[in-house]
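Example 3.2
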Amino acid sequence: MLKTSGTLAGLAALSQTVAGEDKEPKQPRLQFDNADFYDSAGDFRDDKAKAAVVRLCQHHGYPVFPGFADNLWVTDYGTGRFTELGLAAYVFVNNVEDRYMMLDIFLFPNQMLPEHWHVAAENNPAKMEGWLVRWGISHIVGIGEPNLSPEVVVPKCHWDGRVTTEHAVVGTPGTFVPLGKVNSRHWQFGGPEGAIVTEVANVHTNSGVRHTDPKLNEFFLKMVGAA
């Protein structure tokens, strides 16, 4: 059956070439309009962001379960540029007592999760973590020799287009990337169809998060009540 299916697929591709189509039809690219995430006053709309995450999940076949959208955590870090820089995450568990956590990160196409690092806070150690790419592509960036691909463009709304770390692992489904070193800076960048990434760690403490961009750092710490 597998051989037959392959043969039929090959014949279909050949017939397209004969007809003058030298490429197989591709799934429409996932696209979002930044203006859709803001109201007339320019305020970020959580509901629109959450609906877009659901669309991203449906695009990749991620199971959207009851209560999923309601419990998503979304932010544009006050930039007004959510399609370029932001975070959408669903926290499944963050057990402070026994120190383990798991969450899923949802990245839009060419969207940056800002550069940050973790310090010890509230009697919890500095966060040690790793990421398993489940769907799409995520450029997972941290310490090491610079090797960023040309398609990874840091947006101007992130520290005027700058970062301190430029060593990337191009994560595809099944790729697991551990943090290079405790307290080291890291960030991510979604591929052309975005990415869905599972993060595992010892424990997460909001007040222990630090961002390289001073404006983003101030916004985040105020948002989580740690400023």
